[in-house]
Amino acid sequence: MAVNKGDFIKLEFTGKIKETGEVFDTTSEEVAKDAGLQIKKTFGPIPIVVGGGHLIKGLDEAVTGMEEGEEKHIEIEPENAFGKRDPKLVQLIPMREFKKQGIKPYPGMVLTIEGHEGRVLNVSGGRVRVDFNHELAGKTLEYDVRVAEIITDDTEKVKSMIQLHYPSQNMDIDKTEVRIEDGTVTIYMDEMTKFDNRPYMDVTLARFRISRDIWQNMEGIKRVEFADVFEKKDEEVTEEEAEE
Amino acid sequence: MAVNKGDFIKLEFTGKIKETGEVFDTTSEEVAKDAGLQIKKTFGPIPIVVGGGHLIKGLDEAVTGMEEGEEKHIEIEPENAFGKRDPKLVQLIPMREFKKQGIKPYPGMVLTIEGHEGRVLNVSGGRVRVDFNHELAGKTLEYDVRVAEIITDDTEKVKSMIQLHYPSQNMDIDKTEVRIEDGTVTIYMDEMTKFDNRPYMDVTLARFRISRDIWQNMEGIKRVEFADVFEKKDEEVTEEEAEE
C-alpha cells in the first residue's frame, strides 16, 4: 500500500544541511546524541497527515508514493524547504536600542524582536547586523526518511493528531478515549491534561488544529467534541485534593 | 415556598460593619456607588446553593426558611461571619525584609506574604507590624438580604452555578447550552469562553466546583461533562481567523 495525500502516517527522518553535513533535526535519539543536537523533544516516529502542511513541501511530496517500511534518501532545494534567503531580512539596528534594554549583543546571539527571531551576524561601528531569515533559508537539505507506519485505524488516526498538536509531558495517550459515531468524534483526554498550566486559549488552538486535520482528512467527520468529565465519587473529593 | 438547604437561589444583599455602618459588600450597583465602594464586580442578585458554603455561616442560616421575594435584616456575630480576631496573626517583620525587596511599607498598605494577605498597622523602630487577620475578623456584621428567586428549573440551576464559579466578561450565559439526560449533565459553554487566557488548570478548578455543586445538590446527577465543540464549516476557517 503506497502513501497517498491525506494519509495519516508515522515518519522517521534525519535532516542535514547538504553543504556542511550538519544534522539539524531528527526523530532518532541516537542520531541526535551523535550529532550533539541540543533540542528538547521526544524522539520516535512523528505522526503527520500527508499534504496536511505539517512538513516542508519537499518532504511532503517525497513521502507520497512510498510504501510502508520503505526508506529513501532525498535532496530538497531551498524553494521546497525553508525558502531562499531574503537580503532585506538582514537589518542594521543601532546599538543604543540594545543598550536601552540592557542587552549586550554578540555574533551568533539569538533574539526575538517583535515576534520575529533573528541571529546577530556582527557588531561594529555602533550598529548590530541581525539576520531575520530562517536559519535554514537558502540551504539545500538532505533527508533520510522512512515511512514507519501507515495508520489505517480511525481511532489511531485521531490519537495521532492529538500527539502531534497537543504535546504534553503529562499526557498518556493510552488513557485518552476516542468515540466515533454519526460523524462526530468525541475525545476524552487523559485526566492529567486537565491540570495543564498553559492558557485555555492555547488549548483551544491545539484542539482546533486536531479537529481541522480530522475533518479534512477523515471521511464523513463533521464535528469534533473534546469532553472534560467530572464524576461524583463515592468518597467525596475535597477541593484540596482536586488542586493537587 | 420557603428556602431549604440545598436550594439554588438568587440572593440580593448589602453587608455593613455594625460598629461603623460602613458598607463592605453589596449586590446593588446603586448602594455600591453611594458608599463609594471600590470593587470591580458585576452587580445584581448572585446565585448560590443554600448550605453549599458559598456564604458566611450566619448568612447561610438566615436565608433558610425565607420565602421567595422576602426581605430581612440580620445581625451576625463574628463567629458566624469572618471569625474572631487572632492576636497571633499580628506579626512584627524586620524593616530590612521590606528593603530587600524595595518595598516601602506604610500604615494601611495591603501586601501578600507567602500567599497570605496582610495590612500594615504601623512602622516603628525598624519593625513593621502587619495584621494577617481577615479585615472583617472580629466584626459584627449587619445584612439586608432578599431572596430574589428560588430556582426550580434544572437547566437554570446548572447555569446559575456556571455564573457563580466561572466569572468571565466574555461569557454570555444565554449562549450556554445545557443537556440533562440519564444522570449526566452536558454543558456546552458559550464559544467565547474558549478564548479565555487563564490557565487551563484554573478552568478545570472552576469546572470541578460547578460539577460538585451540581451533583451534591441535584437529585440523580452523577456526572458532569463540559464539551468543547469544533465543527466543520462549509467555508473553511483559517487558523488566523481562529486565533482572532
TrEMBL record, chains A, B:
Its EC number is 5.2.1.8. Residues 6-94 form the PPIase FKBP-type domain. It catalyses: [protein]-peptidylproline (omega=180) = [protein]-peptidylproline (omega=0). SUPFAM superfamilies: FKBP-like (SSF54534). Keywords: Isomerase, Rotamase. Gene3D superfamilies: 2.40.10.330, 3.10.50.40, 3.30.70.2210. GO terms for molecular function: peptidyl-prolyl cis-trans isomerase activity. Belongs to the FKBP-type PPIase family. This is Peptidyl-prolyl cis-trans isomerase. It comes from Methanothermobacter wolfeii.
